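::Amino acid chain::
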Amino acid sequence: MSQARIWTGSSTFTSGSSTPFGIYDTDTTFQLDAPKVASWCATRLGYPIIDIELEKENFFAVFEEAVSEYSSQVNQFNIRNNLGSLEGQPTGTDYTHKSINGSELSNIITIAESYGNLANVGGRADIKRGSINIGTGSQEYDLQALWGTVSESGERIDVTTVFYESTPAINRFFDPYSVSGQGTLNLVDEFGFGSFSPAAQFVMMPIYEDMLRIQQIEFNDQIRKSAHTFNIVNNKIQIFPKPTSDYKLWFEYQVVKERRENAAIILPNVVSDYSNIGYNFANYSNINDVGKQWVRKYTLALAKEMLGAVREKYNTVPIPGSEVSLDGAALRAEAQSEKDFLIEQLRENLNEVSKKVRMENEAAMVDQQQTVMNKVPLAIFIG
């Protein structure tokens, strides 16, 4: 059996050759801390009372891995916390160790615009206006053939509004002669109804009185008058009642192709998901003492795991007249438990300072302050 290589008790860090990936080799603080962490881990594992079957390269490798794991956990948290704010930003920007103060409102607006296109209340697709000539006695018209084919080069149109409505009841709601005196007119004009010359009682009566009066007018029209309306299916419109004169019918529409093209924005070279947001390995020098303590403990757990793997290779070691069982399996189990605990602890601490949790805590604090203020007696005024 070959002789296991034993920790010598000291180490020297050489930039460019001491760690597998060299991620932090140029960091002066990392160079200074690496030998110290190696000695501390060896001491925690039992050196010099017992031999430690690891060398400096092993300790430097797990130290690099521990810093990388800490950086990865922090970056994962930052990505979840800031993805909504950074989505759509140019790729290639390094957000490591940077504060992100943007909001997710821009993404919400983008999503709302897509719905606005369909609801005809906004969006990026143009709302256009067209018209056709209505002839006496003709009720049916094909808007696609009469307008879409001619004015939109045959592109499919989607009619959203037809300006063929009966006179609104509000226009017949007020009596223009019921008010006299410039003072009253000025008063109702303050409410934005000066153009209707409303009666004085409009200002004084409750709103349900207005609703009842409008319903009365509309219901009266339905019974006593022929309803002015239309029916539109597949851009084919039917007009009721039968036109008794020639006139122009106006309508609003969207070009279906333009609406579909504007429904989704495809932007190249921008932050789109978890995989291309710019968070890189943290600078070891910028990690505070709280983080470095976590790194040291995680380095020890990784070293313990590696030592267990080495010792597990040989379950027993022969000695004169007997043999000694090694603790490789126990070390690996203990190391795994420590790693799991440290990861869970770090994630919990990060989640406690997420934007969502901080807003919830601030809201709770405001509620508590309000509760306290409600119990403060009001000052008594003595004249």
